[in-house]
């Protein structure tokens, strides 16, 4: 039977680390917790669950901490989580089945990472990450911030989902790490350029973010999914700066790299709605509907753009054109995803009178 080490890095996670370990404790064979300086009861709670706890002096480098945790694992496979991640019972059972059936030729397994859910527990945003890896391959983490696990060989995709349940407020920690790298004259990889730009954006420093996003995009060395995301953020920056022409230019530039992504289509459509050009908007919302997510892609997926947003907006467009039957059709299509959403209910009430007349 395959054996699995669970590896965690943690600091002041007393509120969540027990919940995380409990969600998988019946399946894993070893718990490795690398503590990076907790001042609460994180260590004591981890030890209560039988974890082997190691102290690691924090050096502003997530990859270093994760690599250290991997170095302490002793089982055949390594499974990593963050302390605020959990597996719901359904996915816990899938993990057990994976463990029992995992072929020795498999080098790594990717899983869904659900970053947020709606009130009905449907995913709002998600991506895929490599979660289970063969220990003897000595796969390494790369990147001081927004680190990634570099794998190769026989990598399979699993339908197991890990739910992220963050309970801490976001801080400027990552921004400070990047600015420390700048101060030290560290050379930024394309990935680091992209994520540094994201930190600048999240802190409202839009002009600086624009400069870094453009440096990343124009360098032409980044992952295509990150390039598209950067162009979306560039559009956001220009939106905040109330420069509609440059916003549209950034959205259209994304089509140079790949087929239209639904979020881009919906944003272009909304620009036409603002101009009362509903037929043009309809074209782009239907393009969004026709685009399906690649489930094996590691890119971030905003599920609303693949599901209810284009439908609810088509309802608006057709209502403004006076075609209330078609408007109602698209409202009910949206209701298949968000049955109790206020917009669906309001539209239904409004359209009922229109259709009856």
From TrEMBL:
A GO MF term: transferase activity
Transferase as UniProt keyword: yes
Listed PANTHER family: GLYCOSYLTRANSFERASE (PTHR43630:SF2), POLY-BETA-1,6-N-ACETYL-D-GLUCOSAMINE SYNTHASE (PTHR43630)
Protein keywords: Transferase
Listed name of the protein: Glycosyl transferase family 2
Span of domain Glycosyltransferase 2-like: 5-143
Pfam families for the chain: Glycos_transf_2
Spans traversing the lipid bilayer: none
């Amino acid at each position: 039977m395959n054996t699995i080490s669970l590896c965690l890095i943690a600091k002041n996670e007393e509120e969540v680390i027990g919940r995380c370990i409990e969600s998988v404790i019946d399946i894993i064979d070893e718990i490795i917790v690398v503590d990076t300086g907790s001042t609460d009861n994180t260590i004591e709670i981890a030890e209560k669950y039988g974890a082997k706890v190691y102290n690691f002096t924090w050096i502003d480098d997530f990859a270093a901490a994760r690599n250290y945790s991997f170095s302490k694992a002793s089982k055949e496979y390594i499974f990593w989580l963050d302390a605020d991640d959990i597996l719901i019972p359904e996915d816990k059972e899938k993990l057990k089945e994976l463990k029992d059936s995992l072929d020795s030729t498999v080098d790594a397994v990717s899983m869904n990472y659900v970053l947020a859910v709606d009130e009905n527990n449907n995913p709002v945003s998600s991506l895929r990450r490599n979660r289970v890896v063969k220990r003897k391959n000595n796969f390494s983490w790369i990147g001081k911030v927004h680190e990634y696990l570099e794998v190769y060989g026989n990598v399979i995709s699993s339908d197991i989902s890990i739910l992220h349940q963050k309970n801490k407020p976001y801080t400027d920690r990552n921004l400070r790490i990047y600015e420390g790298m700048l101060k030290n004259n560290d050379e930024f990889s394309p990935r680091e350029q992209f994520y540094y730009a994201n930190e600048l954006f999240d802190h409202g420093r839009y002009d600086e973010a624009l400069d870094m996003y453009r440096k990343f995009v124009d360098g032409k060395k980044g992952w295509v999914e990150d390039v598209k995301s950067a162009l979306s953020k560039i559009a956001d920056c220009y939106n905040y700066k109330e420069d509609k022409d440059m916003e549209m230019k950034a959205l259209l530039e994304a089509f140079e790299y790949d087929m239209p992504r639904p979020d881009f289509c919906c944003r272009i459509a909304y620009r036409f709605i603002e101009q009362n050009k509903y037929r043009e908007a309809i074209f782009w919302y239907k393009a969004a509907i026709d685009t399906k997510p690649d489930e094996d892609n590691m890119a971030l997926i905003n599920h609303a753009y693949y599901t209810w947003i284009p439908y609810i907006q088509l309802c608006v467009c057709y209502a403004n054109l006076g075609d209330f039957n078609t408007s109602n059709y698209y409202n009910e299509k949206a209701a298949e995803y968000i049955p109790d959403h206020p917009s669906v209910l309001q539209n239904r009430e409004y359209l009922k009178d229109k259709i009856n007349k």
